[in-house]
UniProtKB/TrEMBL annotation:
<feature type="region of interest" description="Disordered">
    <location>
        <begin position="175"/>
        <end position="249"/>
    </location>
</feature>
<protein>
    <recommendedName>
        <fullName>Cytoplasmic protein</fullName>
    </recommendedName>
</protein>
<feature type="compositionally biased region" description="Basic and acidic residues">
    <location>
        <begin position="175"/>
        <end position="187"/>
    </location>
</feature>
<feature type="compositionally biased region" description="Acidic residues">
    <location>
        <begin position="217"/>
        <end position="230"/>
    </location>
</feature>
<dbReference type="InterPro" id="IPR010421">
    <property type="entry name" value="TrcR"/>
</dbReference>
<dbReference type="Pfam" id="PF06242">
    <property type="entry name" value="TrcR"/>
</dbReference>
Amino acid sequence: MGKPIMAKATAVWLVDNTTLTFKQIADFTGMHELEVQGIADGDVAAGVKGFDPIANNQLEPEEIKKAETDPAHKLRLKVYAAAQGEEKRRGPRYTPLSKRQDRPASILWLVKFHPELSDGQISKLVGTTKPTIQAIRERTHWNINNIQPIDPVALGLCKQSELDAAVAKAAKKQEAVMSDDERRKLVSTEQSLEMDAEPRLPSAIEGLETFSLTGTPDEEEEKKDDDYADADSFFNLPDGPRDDEDDKD
């Protein structure tokens, strides 16, 4: 059930102008029963002006009368058919002016650490536009050199539960289009943190892992044997006329 606007001021008015029980008022306004009792005692909401729910179209007079005669009856908020679904508006959320300058940093953080998130998900999380997200993805943003990635939860732009839900949804969608082999390669966060860092080659020779300037140890050993197997042949000079002539002399 929806809650009335200005709940505490509405509770003040109901305490002062009706004979409803504390529990009925607490259930209607979403407050604790002891808090409503504190309003009646003057310990809570001192100086708060009552907000008339009847004059502001939140309650029908007949609803209050019914609840006063029946302590078990729960007040029902007046329903506006035209307002149904308004609380689930689509599009980016509103971001206070004081935090709008932090949005590029949070977008860069999301793009860097959660590339599986779509532009639409990022837009809803931090309240930005898709062109801004695209500019940061492609590093064409006018201030990209000065932007440092910062967690949007730390900046107060979204809740951790909202971020986790968006990441889980994106991961599930990505897993649906993966092949069986790619799915088998997926590991949990705990497993990935326990893995040893994979050694990386310098970027200057990256891609040349399969090439070698020298042969394998076995090939090198065979080459040595071939080179020195017939070492005596270096000293066996071929016979020729010169040798015969020298002998005659």
